[in-house]
Design goal:
single chain, mainly beta, Jelly Rolls, 2 domains, nine-stranded mixed beta sheet, eight-stranded antiparallel beta sheet, 4 helices, 29 strands, 36% strand
Length: 473
Amino acid sequence: MEESKRKFKTNQSKGGKTVQKGALMLAIMFALQPVMYAQTAKTTSLFDGKTLTGWKKTAGSATYEVRDGAIVGTTVNGTGNSFLATDREFKDFVLEADVMLESAKGNSGVQVRSHFDPAANNGKGKVYGRQAEVDPTERKWSGGIYDEGRREWLYPLTLNPAAGAAYKANAYNHLKIECIGNEMKTWINGVPAAYVIDTLDKSGFIALQVHGITEAAEAGKKVFFKNITIQTTGIVPSEFPAGIFVVNYTPNTLSSYEKKEGWQLLFDGKSNKGWVGANKNAFPAKGWSIANGTLSVLPAEGKESTNGGDIVTTAEFSAFDLSFEFQLTPGANSGLKYFVTLKEQTAGSAIGLEYQVLDDELHPDAKLGRDGNRTLASLYDLIRADKPKRFIRPIGQWNTGRVVVYPDNSVEHYLNGVKVLSYQRASPAYRELVAISKYKDWKDFGEAGQGHILLQDHGNKVSFRSIKIRKLQ
C-alpha cells in the first residue's frame, strides 16, 4: 500500500507528465470514436468479384458462375425459377447491386428477407419472400415489388408508372433496396420506384434470381450481377419524394409518409366513427359488426339493404384517392359507391357510382349486365374491369381496391395495384354508357360535384378494413 502511494506521488512529481499522457490517450480514444462508427456504417461487399464464396444455389436448374468480376446466371429451358442465395440472413439493411439482362424478354430480380421451403414442389423446394423486380419487357416494372412463392405482386409499377422509364436496356442498371423495420423501398437507377409496408418477414436471406423459361429460344440467356454491397449499421431511412403511392399492409394504420401526404383513415379499426346509415342520422343498430379490426356487413339471405342497410361517410368528397381492403365470402356481393348524394329516393341501395365487390365465380350478377360490366372491380353496369386472373386473390383472402378521381373528372379503378379501367365523368362517352344502363332514368347520374362514400349491404357477409382517402387538388 505505502509503496503504491510512493509510486503515485513520484508520478505526480514529474510535472504531471504521466497524467498528461493519460489524458492525451483518452482524448485520442474519444477522437477516434466517430471514425470507428463511420467505419461500421460503411457498406460491405457481398461478392468478392472472383468466387461465389458466401453464396449457395437454392432451387431451380439455372447455372451461376463468375466471369470478369460479375456473377453470371444462365437460363435453362424447362426449369423453374432459380436462385443464388447468401449463406446468412439479414434483418435491416440497404442493399445495392448492378444488374444487366441479355434478353429483352427476360426477367430477374433480387430477393430480400427470403426463405426456403424444402418440402414444397414435391420435394424440389421453393424460395418465398419479397423480390425487387428487374423487368426489361414493355411492361416496364423494374423496381416493383413481387412476393415470390406467396402473394405474388405487391407493388406493380402501375402504381408508379413514372419509374418505368428508368430501366436501361443492354446496360447495367443500379438497383437499391432499403429494408428497415416493416418498410421496403426500391430505386432503379436512382429513381424512386416502390414503397411497401409489410408485416411479414423480419429477416431472411438475399438471393439473385434467374427466372424460369419455357421458350427454347430463351435458353442460354444470361443475367449479370456485380457491385453487390450491403449496409447493416448506421442506417438512416432515405426520403421518398411526394406523390408516390404506398402499399401499406398494416391494417388500419397510416405511416408518417402517408400522413404527410394528406391521407386520412375513414375507418379506425375500432369504431363506427365517421359513418352513419344511408338516409339515417346514426349507425345501424344491426346488420353490421366491428371486430378484430374489420367492418363487416352481416348476411341476410342475399337481400339488398334489408338488414342493416347501406352505410355512408358523414363527410363528402370531390376529387380524391381512395384505397380499401375487402374480404369476400363464397358467393358474396357488395360494393363501394362514390358520389352518393342521397337525394334519390330508392327502396333498395342508395344511388352512386359503384366499384363492384363480387365473387365472380359464384354470384349470378357476374353474368348479367353487358360484357361483364357487373364483375369484380367494374364500374357497375357501365364499364367492365379488365383484370388478369392472377391479380384476383382467392375468396377468403384480402384484396385491395382503389378508386382515384382526379380534379378533371377522370377516374381510375385498381385491383391489387393494377389499373383495371378508366373513364371521364360527364364526358359524351360516359353519358352514352349511362343512357343504356339501369341508371338511365336518373338525371345527371354520377355527375355530382361531391358526395359520400358508401359501403353496400347486399345481404352477404363482406368485410372491409384499411379504408383511407386523400383529397386531390
